[in-house]
Amino acid sequence: MSAYETVIGLEVHAQLKTKSKIWCSCSTRFGAEPNAHTCPVCTGMPGTLPVLNKRAVEYAVKMSLAVDCTINKRSVFARKNYFYPDLPMGYQISQFELPVAEHGHVVITTSKGEKTIGITRIHMENDAGKNIHSDSENVSFVDLNRAGVPLIEIVSEPDMRSPEEAVAYLKALRAILVYLEICDGNMEEGSFRCDANVSLRPVGQKELGTRTELKNMNSFRNVERALKYEIERQRDMLDDGEKVVQQTRLFDVSKGVTRSMRGKEEANDYRYFPDPDLVPLVFDDQQLEAWKEELPELPRAKKERFMKEYGLSLYDAETLTADKGLAEYFEQAVAAYPQPKKIGNWMMTEMLKELNDTGRDIRACVFEPVHLAKLVKLMDDGLISGKIAKKVFGALFEEGGDPEAYVKEKGMIQISDTSAIEGYVDEVIAENPDEVARFKGGEKKLTGFFVGQVMKKSRGKANPKLVNELLARKMG
């Protein structure tokens, strides 16, 4: 069996979070009735003219700056001609020879360490509509609400060598877009999606192999699955002496396989030419500098700061900065109670579990950062145990509120009175003579049994540290 190297390049489409479409004033709001957000411009009526959305330009430039692209001072819109029912103009207004930006990069982290992935270009274009195929009738419907929603397409260099690297690259791009607040990054709704170009070549060969393009991947998990399947499919073909055909393939999510959709088009198939209705985009240094000054602290810089400022590990810092809302929540909690490691641990375990189970965004969490800080402090002060803290968190995550007031109201304050706990310990020792004898005979694992019995008698309120100390003293 021959040894092959996988080569992957990604074309990422990100819907820009503007209120109106790129060429008209129709709303971009997701989930409206079909064709409710349309007008003569975005439905391609004859005689209509596009007017460029300035905010979309700003967002495209900010993303380009965030990934260290070179901004082209002059860029041109072009008509990309192809015919589908959901493309009402009969062409897409995009950019070809002169995009907004070129030659950037993103640094990713995988199990093998850090790697730089090149970005070939970032260009602007409008989204197409959506075809809806009926299961009960032999008909299809067209919803043009999405037609004209502003997009940026981020085209990578073919620098990725595994599905893991491809997913890490996508996550890095998505994080930057969300940090910039220019895209919501929702893959299920299609506001962040990608096409993957995949090829194999013999190890050591410089020339690229014949590629296929993969579509219909609406989650990071499905991107990974589709790439793994396609790599194996191409490897089997090459081992059998067959030729890989350049084509576009769809990923069948339910079966986990890719299927041929059509022959892959080349640039000349689209018959690009400059759009005669739109003047070139021209940027001046003052405007570019102003947009650059507005860039927030980005994920990579924030991760490095968290490690240096809060003493977090690489894993903890990456987890807490992967989402902007999570990072902001963490910093607010630490400001209220400067114990970053303890607060970080709670967020990465209990908080993320609740968010994932409920499908909520941390920005909508009613359990505020100061409340988490108070909860951790209550544990540190010995007023509640870790077990009780989890119960309090579970209750207040749903309804919000001050944890200190809650534990007092519910009578959950931990017993730290040595004499009271000593009474429970004496009772447990007296009630379990056989276990005491076994413990003194060397079965030290029975410590957990005695602690459990004391906690049961105290209804979970006894300070576990004091319980252990008293048991050790009384039973040697």
TrEMBL record:
Its EC number is 6.3.5.-. One of its GO terms (biological process) is glutaminyl-tRNAGln biosynthesis via transamidation. Pfam families: GatB_N, GatB_Yqey. It catalyses: L-glutamyl-tRNA(Gln) + L-glutamine + ATP + H2O = L-glutaminyl-tRNA(Gln) + L-glutamate + ADP + phosphate + H(+); L-aspartyl-tRNA(Asn) + L-glutamine + ATP + H2O = L-asparaginyl-tRNA(Asn) + L-glutamate + ADP + phosphate + 2 H(+). InterPro entries: Asn/Gln-tRNA_amidoTrfase_suB/E, Asn/Gln-tRNA_Trfase_suB/E_cat, Asn/Gln_amidotransferase, Asn/Gln_tRNA_amidoTrase-B-like, GatB, GatB_C_1, GatB_Yqey_C_2, Gln-tRNA_amidoTrfase_suB_CS. GO terms for molecular function: asparaginyl-tRNA synthase (glutamine-hydrolyzing) activity; ATP binding; glutaminyl-tRNA synthase (glutamine-hydrolyzing) activity; transferase activity. Allows the formation of correctly charged Asn-tRNA(Asn) or Gln-tRNA(Gln) through the transamidation of misacylated Asp-tRNA(Asn) or Glu-tRNA(Gln) in organisms which lack either or both of asparaginyl-tRNA or glutaminyl-tRNA synthetases. The reaction takes place in the presence of glutamine and ATP through an activated phospho-Asp-tRNA(Asn) or phospho-Glu-tRNA(Gln). Heterotrimer of A, B and C subunits. This is Aspartyl/glutamyl-tRNA(Asn/Gln) amidotransferase subunit B. It comes from Desulfoplanes formicivorans. The gene is gatB.
